[in-house]
Specification:
Elements lengths: L1 H14 L1 H40 L2 E5 L2 E2 L2 E2 L3 H8 L4 E16 L2 E11 L1 H6 L4 E4 L4 H5 L4 E4 L1 H8 L8 E4 L2 E9 L13 E5 L14 E6 L5 H15 L8 E4 H44 L1 H9 L4 H38 L7 H27 L3 H6 L2
Parallel strand pairs: 5-10, 7-9
Antiparallel strand pairs: 1-11, 1-12, 2-3, 4-5, 4-8, 4-11, 6-9, 7-10, 8-9
Helix pairs in contact: 1-10, 2-8, 2-10, 2-11, 8-10, 8-11, 10-11
Length: about 400
């Protein structure tokens, strides 16, 4: 009997192709909107999260310009930050500018960054060639340098820079490595920078101001605790002048992005659901017309012994079929729109199974909800009255 009801429901839908298509159009638009909007927003937020993560989701960044009485942080301050529980490493940065000389060529105002070995061990995919700094370079204040790709192109085009000598601030440095091209969206590009041990940069102007420190965590779950402990250390370092420093926690930023994504998803789903409700009303209208047109058929089937629940089942199935057809077409349309949009915008395409289940499940629910009343009306028709209506 179920197979017969399915066949009859499908036959009735196919027999009125244009009317069926116009009826499911609202469902198609609603499901396509949900799939496309949620997928586009998710792709965009995933791209933002990836960018933030690439900046270091496992670290807390301290900017410490200091106060008029104390500029930047000292070695002792950095050592106390490194001693905080669950800290896996600390990387200070000292920045200065100077001229760079190589075989008579001079580059003015080159940015010099003092780093330590922790920075290289925590930064994946940083090195293009050569080697990174090690602990001996830091402790020995070795005159070694790593150069960015712009400087490599300017001075060593077609040559291997490893082992070459350059002059920085009047001192000779040996190039031990080259950096990969940076696409860091924060603007912290090192393409035209020279990296040397932070212990060696102290002879440059401003070299005593340690104004930037990255604290690497054993686990991101310790971010709040480490941030509080770092604030305690910094308050003591700057005599409780909170304007002497700022702390940026990437984990909090990622959490905020997730919250924004959830709110946008909920809001867009609510807006797109309006189309589904409109589509459901269209289905209800078509089913009511169908019941009226097929009153004789219903009366005849009841006169031959068909049970009311079977009549109700047939019409309800027809309503669900209409919704599901609209849901599948809307799903394919939504995926296509989202894919094209992700290519145009330049974000990743990320279709989750939960989004598909939500959209198709919602459309099937619309079919049941708005098809119930017409199906119930059909099942309650009196067979004698139905046959008289012919």
């Amino acid at each position: 009997m179920l197979r017969e009801n399915i066949y009859m429901a499908w036959r009735n839908i196919v027999s009125s192709k244009m009317r069926s298509f116009l009826t499911v159009l609202g469902i198609v638009i609603g499901v396509a909107s949900i799939i496309a909007l949620i997928t586009i927003v998710k792709g965009a937020t995933n791209s933002i999260s990836d960018q933030v993560t690439s900046l270091g989701a496992d670290k807390v960044t301290i900017q410490a310009p200091g106060t008029p009485l104390k500029r930047g942080l000292t070695e002792r301050d950095v050592s106390r930050l490194a001693d905080i529980e669950h800290v896996d490493g600390v990387s200070p940065t000292i920045t200065s500018t100077t001229s760079l000389v190589y075989e008579g060529k001079v580059l003015e105002d080159v940015t010099i960054q003092g780093k330590n070995e922790v920075y290289f061990s925590k930064s994946d995919d940083l090195l293009e060639s050569g080697r990174e700094m090690n602990r001996l370079d830091i402790e020995g204040k070795n005159k070694v340098a790593l150069i960015g790709p712009s400087i490599e192109d300017d001075l060593f085009f077609g040559k291997n820079p490893i082992g070459q000598k350059i002059t920085l601030g009047g001192s000779s440095y040996t190039i031990i490595g080259t950096l990969k091209e940076s696409t860091n969206y924060s603007g912290d590009s090192q393409n035209d920078h020279v990296l040397i041990p932070y212990t060696a940069v102290r002879s440059f102007p401003g070299g005593n101001n340690m104004t930037n420190v990255d604290i690497y965590m054993e686990n991101t779950s310790y971010s709040d605790q480490i941030t509080e402990d770092a604030e305690w250390v910094l308050n003591q370092a700057f005599n409780y002048k909170e304007d002497g420093y700022s702390i940026m926690n990437m984990t909090d930023m990622l959490s905020t992005i997730d919250d924004i994504n959830s709110m946008l998803t909920l809001m867009l789903t609510g807006i797109a659901s309006i189309s589904l409700i409109v589509g459901g009303i269209g289905i209800m209208n078509m089913m009511l017309v169908s019941v009226t047109e097929r009153t004789t058929e219903i009366g005849l089937r009841k006169a031959l012994g068909a049970e009311p629940k079977k009549i109700q089942q047939q019409f309800l199935m027809e309503s669900v079929f209409l919704s599901l057809i609209g849901g599948v077409i809307g799903l394919l349309a939504g995926i296509f729109i989202a894919y094209v949009a992700s290519l145009v915008i330049g974000t990743g395409f990320s279709l989750s199974i939960s989004t598909v289940i939500l959209a198709v499940g919602f459309s099937a629910g619309i079919g049941v909800l708005f098809g119930y009343a017409p199906a119930k009306k059909a099942s309650h028709l009196n067979p004698i009255d139905a046959l008289r209506s012919t």
